[in-house]
Design goal:
14-stranded mixed β-sheet
């Protein structure tokens, strides 16, 4: 079933400048892939967030130039205050998930990615109840294991803006085919996400994948609440 995520409606009436008792929580998917040109792309497709449903894209070019493509100024401000970029572009970000394909149109970027079957890691994650898998306390315990098994990947860490962040994954599907272009120029064939992206403390897995997850962001300045 097709599921479009458009930039035009994002942010309407759902924006919260301050975290709730559990922090800012984003539920959706992150699709990370590399290309043989050296460009690496991270697509966030968020079903539920303090901004409502929206999509954004982080792109690191071969020379290391980091670009955020975000649909609204509010989203751009929040994401760029949490992660590091050399350039922030406000532009409609449209993501269409149809069967096993993810289609992305975001300013100069066009991506078509085909998803494969659930990975072995995805099957393992499915065994853990979502409420546990996405809980910061569980992720604190899991962090050293993930770091050893998946180079460049962290499930917790410090973000910009005096914030802490946790990534609670619940499923993983491999990306098996992808095409991408930037300003109409082909970016090459699908490749591993190498070197790791440098937007924050963690990169996506080296093997191109679509990860279902809940991202939790908390402000260190706020009282540290119990979930």
């Amino acid at each position: 079933m097709a599921r479009p995520r458009g930039g035009s409606a994002a942010g309407g009436g759902h924006h919260r400048d301050t975290p709730s008792a559990t922090g800012w929580r984003f539920r959706g998917t992150i699709t990370g892939l590399g290309t043989t040109s050296g460009t690496r792309v991270v697509i966030g497709d968020w079903l539920d967030s303090p901004f409502g449903g929206f999509a954004d894209v982080m792109v690191e070019r071969p020379g290391g130039h980091r670009v955020l493509l975000a649909p609204t100024r509010e989203i751009a401000d929040f994401v760029s205050s949490t992660y590091s970029f050399d350039e922030v572009v406000q532009t409609p970000v449209d993501v269409l998930s149809e069967r096993r394909w993810v289609h992305v149109l975001a300013g100069p970027l066009v991506v078509h990615a085909q998803l494969g079957r659930r990975t072995f890691l995805g099957w393992l994650l499915r065994l853990v109840p979502t409420s546990v898998a996405t809980h910061p306390h569980w992720l604190d315990i899991l962090a050293p294991i993930v770091h050893r098994l998946l180079p460049g990947v962290q499930v917790r860490g410090s973000a910009r803006g005096d914030r802490q962040e946790w990534y609670g994954a619940t499923d993983v599907h491999a990306v098996i085919v992808a095409t991408a272009s930037w300003d109409g120029v082909d970016l090459g064939r699908l490749a591993r996400v190498e070197p790791p992206t440098r937007f924050g403390f963690s990169s996506t897995p080296p093997r191109p994948a679509c990860v279902t997850l809940v991202t939790t962001v908390r402000s260190r300045a706020a009282e540290n609440p119990r979930l």
